[in-house]
Write a structure and sequence with these properties.
The structure holds two protein chains of two kinds.
Chain A lengths: L2 E5 L2 E3 L5 E8 L7 E7 L5 E7 L5 E3 L7 E6 L4 E6 L8 E8 L8 E2 L3 E5 L2
Parallel strand pairs in A: 2-11
Antiparallel strand pairs in A: 1-3, 3-8, 4-5, 4-9, 5-6, 7-8, 9-10, 9-11
Chain B lengths: L3 E4 L2 E4 L5 E7 L7 E6 L6 E5 L3 E2 L7 E6 L2 E6 L9 E6 L11 E5 L1
Parallel strand pairs in B: 2-10
Antiparallel strand pairs in B: 1-3, 3-8, 4-5, 4-9, 5-6, 7-8, 9-10
Chain lengths: ~120, ~110
C-alpha cells in the first residue's frame, strides 16, 4: 500500500526556518517524481515545489530562493527546507507523488500544518 | 505562469442532479489537466487525468472533457458523497497551477 507521511510542521516565528519531511513506503520511491503542495487555512491548493527522480527541481515564484526541496532515496524520504518564513507561508503542507512527468498527483500525504506567527 | 480559472466558485445542487464545473487556462495546455476532489480536513483525491481519463477506482458518474484552454468536469448524477470542493490543475508546465476551486453544496 502506498503511504506518504509528512512530519516537521509546527509554530515558527517570522524569519525562522523549518524542515518538513515526507516518509514514503509501498512503492519504489527513487523512480518517482514528487512535489510539495500547500493550502492556507480556508484557501485553495497551491503547488510549491517539484523534484524529479533525477534531482531536477522547480519552485513556485512565491517560495523561490527561500525553500529547497530535496530527496534521500536511500531513506525513501522527501524534504522541504523552508527559510525566511513569512506569515503568508502558514498552511497545511502536503507531499504528493507523480506517476509520470505529465500526470496528476495520484497519492497524497495527510499533510502537516506550518504556522508562521510571532 | 499559466493561470487556471474555475467557474462557478460555489454550486448548490440536489442529489441526483447533473453537475458541470468549468476550468479555463490562460494559454493552451493541450490535454494536460487533472481534476481533484477534496473534503474538509482531507487531502485531495485524483479523479481525472489527461483531461478525460478516469483514475482507477473513481465512479463512472465522474467524467472530464476538453482540450486547449477549456475543460469541464461533469458529475452525471450527484450522490451524497460528492458534496466537496473540486479543483482543476494544469501540468503543461512544471509550475503546476491549480484553479481556485468549486465548492459543491447541498441545495
Amino acid at each position: 500500500e502506498v503511504q506518504l507521511v509528512e512530519s516537521g510542521g509546527g509554530l515558527v516565528q517570522p524569519g525562522g526556518s523549518l524542515r518538513l519531511s515526507c516518509a514514503a513506503s509501498g512503492f519504489t520511491f527513487s523512480s518517482y517524481e514528487m512535489s510539495w503542495v500547500r493550502q492556507a487555512p480556508g484557501k485553495g491548493l497551491e503547488w510549491v515545489s517539484y523534484i524529479s527522480s533525477g534531482y531536477n527541481t522547480y519552485y513556485a515564484d512565491s517560495v523561490k530562493g527561500r525553500f529547497t526541496i530535496s530527496r534521500d532515496n536511500a531513506e525513501n524520504s522527501l524534504y522541504l527546507q523552508m527559510n525566511s518564513l513569512r506569515a503568508e507561508d502558514t498552511a497545511v503542507y502536503y507531499c504528493a507523488r507523480l506517476p509520470t512527468t505529465f500526470a496528476g498527483f495520484d497519492y497524497w500525504g495527510q499533510g502537516t500544518l506550518v504556522t508562521v506567527s510571532s | 505562469d499559466i493561470q487556471m480559472t474555475q467557474s462557478p466558485s460555489t454550486l448548490s445542487a440536489s442529489v441526483g442532479d447533473r453537475v458541470t464545473i468549468t476550468c479555463r487556462a490562460s494559454q493552451s495546455i493541450s490535454s494536460w489537466l487533472a481534476w481533484y476532489q477534496q473534503k474538509p480536513g482531507k487531502a485531495p483525491k485524483l479523479l481525472i487525468y489527461k483531461a478525460s481519463s478516469l483514475e482507477s477506482g473513481v465512479p463512472s458518474r465522474f467524467s472530464g472533457s476538453g482540450s486547449g484552454t477549456e475543460f469541464t468536469l461533469t458529475i452525471s448524477s450527484l450522490q451524497p458523497d460528492d458534496f466537496a470542493t473540486y479543483y482543476c490543475q494544469q501540468y503543461m508546465s512544471y509550475s503546476r497551477t491549480f484553479g481556485q476551486g468549486t465548492k459543491v453544496e447541498i441545495k
